[in-house]
Amino acid sequence: MARAVFRVEHRLGIPAPAHVVWQVLADLERWGQWNPIYPKAEGRLSIGGRLEITETMPGGEPVQITPTVVDWVPDAQILWRMSQKLGFLKRLRYLEIDPLSDEGCIFANGEDWYGRPARYVTSAQRRAMREGFAALGEALSARAVSVWR
After folding, report:
1. What letter does residue 83 receive in the DSSP assignment?
2. Which 3 state secondary structure label does DSSP give 114?
3. In the CATH scheme, what is the code of domain 6-27+70-148?
4. What's the rounded Cα separation, in Å, for the pair 68 and 2?
């Protein structure tokens, strides 16, 4: 894939083991109970699998997306991609867990945008994505800690 036009990412430490964070993250059908930007998600985590997700960024309207799982590794990551604008815009979304110790990890979630239409994403849209990704990280942390304790 060509170099990304832009990337939006949020990282934070979670005071819970990576396997607990993964347990929460991999349970797509329960995302609606805690996930502020993906209140509905269905599908199976499998390479080439299609997901059906409702995406709601701060200040935006809900949008239905149907990404394809590119890769997933238990306790480590989920990657999906999708195309828009007749295939001229490509988005690669990642949710990654890096263990630090038996009781903590780093969670990174972000998205790379490729293609000419990505140049026209406004600063307000980028800000909404940053806020949304931060909210997702904080909500995942709270959920994982409550499951673990």
Report:
1. E
2. strand
3. 3.30.530.20
4. 18
For the record, the structure tokens of 116 come out as: 């000419």
Global model pTM greater than 0.85? yes
Is residue 30 within 8 Å of 42, Cβ to Cβ? Answer: no
What is the b/e burial string over 19-34, where b = at least 16 CB atoms within 10 angstroms of the residue's CB? Answer: ebbbbbbeebeebeeb
Query: CB–CB of 83/67 below 8 Å?
Result: no
pLDDT per position as a tens digit, 136-147: 999 999 999 999
Residue in 77, 80, 52, 48 with CA at minimum distance from that of residue 66:
52
C-alpha span between 48 and 51 (Å, rounded): 10
> Which residues lie across from 112 on neighbouring strands?
7, 92
Structural domain boundaries of the chain?
Answer: 6-27+70-148
